[in-house]
Amino acid sequence: MPDQAMPDQAVTPAVDIVVPVRDEERVLSLSVRRLAAYVRDSFPYTARITIAENGSSDRTWDIARSLAAELERVQAVRLDRPGRGGALKAAWLASDAEILAYMDVDLSTGLNALPPLVAPLLSGHSDLAIGTRLARGARVTRGLKREVISRGYNLLLRTALGARFSDAQCGFKAIRADRAARLLPLVEDTGWFFDTELLMLAQRRGLRIHEVPVDWTDDPDSRVDIVATALADLRGIARVRSEGASWRTRIPVGTAIVVEEEKAS
């Protein structure tokens, strides 16, 4: 059972925004305060922010607990085992919200994309929504190396797995809770490949995936180990590809993907 620091007012929200963190004492307080202010002042739906700390060795958990004690509708959960995917899975399965979302702690994605991310899920138009840096209307600021890796990875997904979504690893996604309850127990990966595996499961079940072009500014001080992450992703692709026959047996192929042509202002 994970440790928890609950907000003062336990209100069932429409949207639970999970922020997975590990060793993020440098940016956690500023980012969560900025996100909380946006949710309070500009977000048109009731929302909770859940800080999902996993395996930190610095003061991240202490800061998370302090934020949960101070800020309205912010809570913190702690899992001993590192892994972004594992943290998201645990936080999402424990949530009582109708829509389950997440974003990276560096807030690389512009927050004005949050309402168009969750609106089609709340309306029943779509089942899962993702931010995309690779569709028309997205505005991205990042180095050439990361741009090439991102495009190469998504091209590999299309050729090796038949992916029909444009950007698997953008740290900005949401899913209807009823769909998550069915998909999450099937997701094996607990690290960075979690996103891709979840999307492939959704696609092969015929779920409707909504794509929202985003403004994205890369964090130059990102803690992500690109080489280690790439190797883990390749292993994940190989595993999912090898399981393709069994996936096709239990999960019908086919999906509907909707891409917003214009970025929301």
Q: How would the global form be characterised? A: globular
Q: What amount of the residues lies in strands?
A: 15-25%
Helical residue percent band? 25-40%
Q: Give the biggest sheet.
A: 9 strands, mixed
Rounded mean pLDDT is 87
Number of strands: 11
What's the tally of helices? 9
Total tally of structural domains:
2
Q: Write the element-wise H/E pattern from the N-terminal end onward.
A: EEHEHEHEHEEHEHHEEHHE
Quote the distance from N terminus to C terminus.
41 Å
Strand order of the largest sheet: 1-4-3-2-5-8-6-9-11
Unreliable stretches covering 5 or more consecutive residues:
247-255, 259-265
Structural class by secondary-structure content: alpha/beta
If you compute it from the alpha carbons, what radius of gyration comes out, rounded to the nearest whole angstrom?
Answer: 17 Å
Task: Kindly describe this structure.
- By secondary structure, the chain is α/β, with parallel strands linked by helices.
- It folds into 2 domains: 1-105, Spore Coat Polysaccharide Biosynthesis Protein SpsA, Chain A, CATH 3.90.550.10; 108-265, no CATH class.
- It has 9 helices and 11 strands.
- The strands form 2 sheets. It has a 9-stranded mixed β-sheet with strand order 1-4-3-2-5-8-6-9-11, sandwiched between helices. It has a two-stranded parallel sheet with strand order 7-10.
- Helix 1 links the parallel strand 2 (15-21) and strand 3 (47-54).
- The protein is globular, with a radius of gyration of 17 Å.
- The N and C termini lie far apart (41 Å).
